[in-house]
Specification:
Structural class: mainly beta
Shape: globular
CATH architecture: Sandwich
Number of domains: 1
Largest sheet: 4 strands, antiparallel
Strand order of the largest sheet: 1-7-3-4
CATH topology: Jelly Rolls
Number of helices: 2
CATH superfamily: Domain of unknown function DUF1214, C-terminal domain
Order of helices and strands: HEEEEEEEHE
Strand content: 25-35%
């Protein structure tokens, strides 16, 4: 029997996921639609602009999951995530543009997560070691924007 999709996305929680203590805990931000309110589609290319000074004392990470299996996305490059622990291309202000799509934009190969046409996906953007900026909502992660 296939479980309804919404019932198998999250299966646990921990004290670290609900604490309001700065420097401790984590948060998982997720979505299913882009800035135009269209469903995220493996055939399209998207940009996620990560503003500078993310409210993560430890690190942040973007991971993609397959909508049907709820497992990491499968692609020929075997890349399902990018994080601040990697050597990413950064802008002068410290922001990072991450790309998700079937082909890497020139010059941003290190910031790219490959997708597969015909496969829907959803992201979790995780922040670890939350800072005051998260709790005060001073730092906002924008929506995925379709690259046209």
């Amino acid at each position: 029997m296939n479980a309804p999709r919404g019932f198998c996305e999250a299966t646990a929680t921990s004290a670290g996921m609900v604490t309001k203590t700065p420097g401790v805990g984590s948060v998982y931000l997720g979505c299913y639609k882009d800035s135009d309110d269209d469903w995220l589609d493996g055939a399209n290319t998207y940009r996620l602009h990560v503003p500078p000074n993310a409210p993560a004392k430890q690190f942040w990470s973007l991971t993609l999951y397959d909508v049907d299996t709820r497992a990491l996305i499968q692609n020929t490059d075997q890349i399902a995530d990018r994080s601040s622990r990697q050597e990413l291309v950064k802008s002068a202000d410290g922001s990072v543009d991450l790309y998700v799509g079937p082909k890497a934009p020139t010059g941003f190969e290190r910031n790219w997560i490959p997708t597969v046409a015909g496969k829907a996906w959803f992201p979790y953007f995780r922040l670890y070691g939350l800072t005051e900026q998260h709790f005060n909502r001073e730092w906002i992660l924008p929506d995925f924007e379709k690259v046209k």
